[in-house]
Amino acid sequence: MAFAQAHGVAHTTFDSTFELEKIAVHFPSAQVVLRIECDDPNALVPFHGKFGAQPTEWEALLEKTKSLGLSLAGVAFHVGSGCTDPHVYHRAMDAAQDVLHLARKFGFEPHLLDLGGGFSYPLPPAIVAAVRAKADALQAQIPKLTLIAEPGRYFAETTCVHYTKVVGKRVRGDKREYWIEDGIYGHFADVGHGYMVATPLVVAKDDTAPVFESRIYGGTCDGIDVVVPSCVLPDLPVGAWLYFENMGAYTNALATSFNGIDAAAAPRVYKRAKTKGFV
């Protein structure tokens, strides 16, 4: 917190009185943002109530903010990554609107609404429509209201393609089992968490070759290191290359060196796209 203040960070969130007391001591110049709980239990990555103040806590938190002499900038929420239900955003933005109006009763002039993150590309049209409609209504009520979001996954997810080699093979009847040099302790950590479904594609695939029921294991000694439990692939030799698209978010950042396999040290190749940016 002291580091953030020293480097010009202006805002920080809170959802408890203990956090407010800490901010008042270590970051008193902060523009504080009340994070409210608006989880979607059906999101791909739900937060299970870990973050955010509940409605019964809002008033006491605003009162505490006032008594500590802190400046309230606005409200934040995060419904969880991979939310596809527009009604969740309706509820979240309605709750944010209630907090913004409540804050005014305490003498604050909130001007910021953070819509959170967890967005994948492309955004579901129903989500876009829901957020836009609510945003327009809110900004009509509070003309100076600024809306921001946290689109890290949205920008990063589709920018990377991950290549990995088949290093082991077993044939049992008509079924093929492969071991690759990566796994859930490497770039496929979110598979292990249940947050990702990995889809293998074959480099230099022969579309006329017969295909077989297949399973892909990670290279570690752990029995749960299964990257793809079931898929259909042609008969691949050891040394064949597979690739996985949309591997730009929560992959290399979560990779470990478990079992001596340093997945994070894998070489990277950057290619300039035909359009602006990189792929």
From TrEMBL:
<dbReference type="Pfam" id="PF00278">
    <property type="entry name" value="Orn_DAP_Arg_deC"/>
</dbReference>
<dbReference type="InterPro" id="IPR022643">
    <property type="entry name" value="De-COase2_C"/>
</dbReference>
<dbReference type="InterPro" id="IPR022644">
    <property type="entry name" value="De-COase2_N"/>
</dbReference>
<dbReference type="GO" id="GO:0033387">
    <property type="term" value="P:putrescine biosynthetic process from arginine, via ornithine"/>
</dbReference>
<dbReference type="GO" id="GO:0005737">
    <property type="term" value="C:cytoplasm"/>
</dbReference>
<dbReference type="Pfam" id="PF02784">
    <property type="entry name" value="Orn_Arg_deC_N"/>
</dbReference>
<dbReference type="InterPro" id="IPR009006">
    <property type="entry name" value="Ala_racemase/Decarboxylase_C"/>
</dbReference>
<dbReference type="InterPro" id="IPR000183">
    <property type="entry name" value="Orn/DAP/Arg_de-COase"/>
</dbReference>
<dbReference type="GO" id="GO:0004586">
    <property type="term" value="F:ornithine decarboxylase activity"/>
</dbReference>
<comment type="similarity">
    <text>Belongs to the Orn/Lys/Arg decarboxylase class-II family.</text>
</comment>
<dbReference type="InterPro" id="IPR029066">
    <property type="entry name" value="PLP-binding_barrel"/>
</dbReference>
<feature type="domain" description="Orn/DAP/Arg decarboxylase 2 C-terminal">
    <location>
        <begin position="158"/>
        <end position="248"/>
    </location>
</feature>
<protein>
    <recommendedName>
        <fullName>Ornithine decarboxylase</fullName>
    </recommendedName>
</protein>
<feature type="domain" description="Orn/DAP/Arg decarboxylase 2 N-terminal">
    <location>
        <begin position="3"/>
        <end position="156"/>
    </location>
</feature>
<dbReference type="InterPro" id="IPR002433">
    <property type="entry name" value="Orn_de-COase"/>
</dbReference>
